[in-house]
Write a structure and sequence with these properties.
The chain contains 13 helices and 16 strands. It is an alpha/beta fold. Helix 9 links the parallel strand 8 (193-197) and strand 9.
Length: 362
Amino acid sequence: MTSPSEHMREALSLAKKGLLTTRPNPMVGCVITLDNKVIGRGWHQKAGEGHAEVNAIQNVFENLGSSAESALENSEMFVTLEPCSTTGRTPPCSESIKRYGIKKVYIASEDISQDGFAKKEKDIEIIEGLLRDEARALNRGFFSRLEKNRPFITAKMAVGLDGGIALNSGKSKWITSEISRKDVHKLRASNEAILTGTGTILKDNPSLTSRDSGYDINDVKQPLRVVIDRNNYLNGEENIFSSKAETLVFTTKHSKIKSKSSEICIMSKNDLADLNNIMSYLAEEKSINTLMVESGSILLDALLAQELIDELILYHAPKLLGKDRNTFSKFGQNNQKLSTIGFTIGDMENLGEDLKITLTPK
C-alpha cells in the first residue's frame, strides 16, 4: 500500500519540472488519489498559467472522463504548497478544490503570501506539514524572498588546493575542468540573477550568461545580470552590457555608463556599501528568488561579513597556484574579530578531476 509520504514525494518530483519556467512563482506539484491509487497528476508549468492543483484536476478528467466528478468527491489531494486562495493572473486554486468536493488535502508547506487556505476551509480535512522540510528546500528562494525580504544567495568559487583563484599575472584564466565549467552554466540557468562586482568585470570582462547548461534551450531564461559599481569604473561597453541578457547596475549619480540596454539604479555610496539594500531591492522590485554570486574576494568578503551567504559552492581543482596566487577570500585579514567562519559540508560530487563541494554557513 502506498503511503501518504510516497504520494507527496511524487508531487515533489512533479514540482521540480518547473525549475526553469515558473519564476518568480514557486514550483508546485500535485497528486490526486482515489482508494490510494493515483488518478491525476499536475504541476505548475509556467508563471501565468494553470497551477498544479488545477492541472491535476484536469488530468483526472482526461483519465476518467465522465466518472471524474464522482471520483473527485471521494479523492485525496497531495500538494507541495498551500493552495492559493487569492486571485492573481489565474483564479484561486481553492475554488477548484471546493467546486469538485475534494474532502481531504495533504499540504507539505504553508504559503504566507496567501490568505490562509488551511485555516479558512472548515469543510475540508487538511493535513499540514507532510515532508515540509523537503518542500521548503525545493522553494528555498521563494521562502527567502517572503520571509527575509531577500533572495536565497549562493556564492560560487573555482579554487586550487591552496585556495588560489588566479595568479597575480592573470595567466591562469581556467583553473577547473571543462566538466566543472559546464556545471557552472547549469547553475547559472537555475538561478534568476547573477551578482558580480567591477573587479571581476574589469579583469575578466565576462558576459555571465548560461550557454551550455544541458537544459532545453527553450526553457532557459537568461538570469538577470546584477552589477555593483560604487566607484563608477564602468562605461557600458563591457560584455556584461550585451543584449544576450538583461543587466541591472547599482551605482551612484556620477556613473559613466551610457548603455541604453541596461537598467540603472542610483544609490549613495553608503547605501551601496550595505548590501542588504541591494538584496531588498532585488526581492521587492524584481521578485528575485535566487541569486548566484560570481565575483572576486572583495564582494565575497563583504557578503560574508554581512551574513548574506546562504550557500557556498567550491569547485576544487587539483592544482597549486603557488605564492603569487590571489585567494578567494581575504576575510581574516580585514575582519580580525570574525576571522573564522564555520561551514557545514553538504553535497560532494566528483566532476572529472575536480571536486564540487556544497557548504552552508553555520
